[in-house]
């Protein structure tokens, strides 16, 4: 289910960018034959917040959930705030899941792995500000500005003017450049993004 949600979000992300013309200035990042790419490229939050367990999904209407995740995963620039784009935080907020229910489920799901929510994680998720949630659960590859998280994919498809409007500075961009080497980009895409980012970073 976790891989399905990640792949679904990635597909909607790419579709939304294509439909709004955002992909037109940059080459397609992946070959059409590639089916298992994009996890790093589209990542905004870590696996704890990015995964919505079926114990949560079963609490809401299936059709409403499908409609919500399709809308909230549309990362064409409308949704970059952690309490708006599809993840566990925004799910809890959108569907008004009671705090007690969230605590019970997240403690029940503990397996002793690094993906478990600690008591402190749960407290921040439920009572922290959106900025605190974004800071706590941001993906290592995302750029964080307040409560907004920008994935490598967002950076890839958007322009320098978009970066500036989001408050993203050259100092935020420089560390990203080598990260694109692990995304599985085509040679053309890798060259294009490095050229764009090096120009902005300089």
In a few lines, what is going on in this structure?
By secondary structure, this protein is mostly helical.
Main sheet: which strands, in order across?
1-2
Helix tally equals 12
Helix-strand category: mainly alpha
Largest sheet: 2 strands, antiparallel
Parts with pLDDT < 50 across at least 5 consecutive residues: 6-23
Helix content: 40-55%
Number of strands: 2
End-to-end C-alpha gap: 41 Å
Morphology: elongated
What portion of the residues fall into strands of 2 or more residues? Answer: under 5%
Q: Please state the average pLDDT score.
A: 87
- Write down the secondary-structure element order: HHHHHHHHEEHHHH
Over the alpha carbons, how many angstroms does the gyration radius reach?
Answer: 17 Å
How are the secondary structure elements laid out?
Layout (H helix, E strand, L loop, with lengths): L1 H19 L26 H4 L3 H4 L4 H11 L15 H7 L4 H10 L10 H9 L2 H8 L5 E3 L2 E3 L1 H6 L2 H7 L3 H4 L13 H15 L1
Antiparallel strand pairs: 1-2
Structure overview:
The chain has 202 residues and is an all-alpha fold. 51% of the residues lie in helices and 3% in strands. The protein has 12 helices and 2 strands; from the N terminus they run H-H-H-H-H-H-H-H-E-E-H-H-H-H. It has a two-stranded antiparallel ribbon. A hairpin with a 2-residue loop joins strand 1 and strand 2. It starts with a helix and ends with a helix.
